[in-house]
Amino acid sequence: MTATTEQENATPRRSAPLWQKLLLWIVAGVCFAVIYSKLEAGAARQGKSIIPYLTEVFAGVSWTQWLALMIPYSAFFFLVDSAVVWRVINWYNVKLRYIDILPIRGSSYILSIVNEQVGKGAMGLYLNRRWGVPGWEVGSSMLFIMFCEFFYLTTWGTIGYAIAGDQLPDVFGAIPYVAVAALVLLTVVHLFFSGVILPANTLRDKPVFRAFRQAKAWHYAAIIALRSPAMIGAVFVYTLTLGLFGIEQDFGTMLGYLPIIFFGAATPGPMRTVAITLWVLLFPGHEAEMVAFGFVQHNFFIFFNAAIGLLFLRRANRELFSGEPAVDGAGAT
Q: Quick one: DSSP state of residue 242?
């Protein structure tokens, strides 16, 4: 063990400041307070208490039809999501077959119930143990995927605004400005890691930015395109399932709403409560329906994906803890 390693091990890791830990829970608390106040007002209009008000909504849904829509969509999302991970890993780390990614991507959904970053960490451990990919290189690829996720949601949010902007609340008018800022950011980031901007800066040489150094401009567009079938499928499925809760909506308007709601749902920790709150705010007068809808849509998606992971868990554990590297693993490319 080197002196540097000993020093690193002896230095305690700094935990996040208390205010950062509390902030997410404060936001979650505010969201729950908003939801409760909206529910209370809606129940009062019908002369009911909150529990009967919500129970009536759940009782009126055809859950058989709902499952017939949600189960295929969740499976389809898993296949698309796995394709994104497979493509990035093949670009920047190691050549794998698509089928080789399915067990660990599926199994990582189980850990993602607690935290999405933990799930990505599990994928990093798997690729390191099974295929010999250095941890920093895998981390760089996972960071690249998360970075592209923002531009994927921004792209679809912009498309949705162009289609149904006049039907969206005024606050959605910021979407075009966000899109322009995102495009500028993406351009600057790519030029920086390509060495065009600040060529003497050594930040780009950090291992965690390896994927960004190797990324071509078309890689960003390819990831957005590869993930886009999941958004198109979501617009179709969510519009139909919303109808099962008694609210008719057109596909164009839903295309404007979903990217924003998904962005809130993708935020780590209790900030995911924002997703449910947005449903309530976007459909005033349907408080009970939207609370029920947001709750079951979001939680079914998370837990059904984890159930998919259980199908692959045995194989993933066997490959992860067997101690034998893959026979055809070629290492990082």
A: H
Residues 6+ apart with CB under 8 A from 58: 292
List Cα–Cα distances, 221 to 148, 215, 231, in angstroms.
Answer: 9, 11, 15
Which residues form the domain of 98?
A: 22-134+228-321
The predicted pLDDT at position 330 comes to 45
Instruction: Kindly tell me if the per-residue pLDDT of 257 is higher than 50.
Output: yes
Question: With contact defined as beta carbons under 8 Å apart, do 127 and 133 qualify?
Answer: yes
The three-point CA angle 260-263-268 to 5° equals 150
208 occurs within a structural domain:
no
Q: Is residue 261 part of a domain?
A: yes
Q: Do residues 330 and 136 lie in contact, with contact meaning Cβ atoms separated by under 8 Å?
A: no
pLDDT > 80? residue 170 = no
Residue 265 has pLDDT above 70, yes or no: no
176's tokens: 């075009």
Residue 288 lies in a domain: yes
Is position 316 within any domain? yes
Q: For the chain, how many structural domains are there in total?
A: 1
Q: Give the global pTM.
A: 0.80
Closest to 110 measured CA to CA, from 269, 271, 316? 316
**Exposure string (b/e) for 191-225, b if CB count within 10 Å is 16 or more?**
ebbbeeeeeeeeebeeeebbbbebbeeebbebbbe
pLDDT digits (tens, 9 = 90+) for 132-144: 778 788 889 989 9
Of 105 and 273, more confident: 105
Residue 65 pLDDT level (bands cut at 50, 70, 90): very high
Contacts of 317 (CB under 8 A, 6+ apart): 107
